[in-house]
């Protein structure tokens, strides 16, 4: 997912640039296969990305991957955090069958975290976008851990703004508000909350980090 100086040397999702302006870009992304985990962040004290370990184990970031087939898959970027308007985030299909066999999968990007209010508590869904070689969910290796779910995300169009530094809650909130105002000013209808894309690991120097705030339109 990059180096301390921010170099991005892994696969990133391709997209079609529809419009570029000083305030934002309009991009269209193709369908993507994702691995995701839904969890209660309160179970991971001080770590809002608590599902990361489960997904990292699935693709085999370090050690034996917890999936069916032994296959090396290149890491991709960015890590993505999604916020959801839904009151409850359910696990999505297909249902995954456990297996003791393994397939080596390199970490992919983005990693996606979707947050939403559950019926009784807040839940978060973190996602890793799998490499483009996987065009359908059934083509990706099946996870051993049933908490990891493989699913598909269809074609989507985003308004996007780039920024460097640390993506704190305050910064993200400000970027979201400004991007939403700019898009609505220009006649776009914003659908739902933001998607935060982070292209670099935590050890990257903040000034060299690449972040994107995306709003579905």
Automatic annotation (TrEMBL):
Pfam family, one: SOUL
Taxonomy, superkingdom: Eukaryota
Gene3D superfamilies reported in the protein's UniProt record: Regulatory factor, effector binding domain (3.20.80.10)
Family in the record: Belongs to the HEBP family.
Protein name: SOUL domain-containing protein
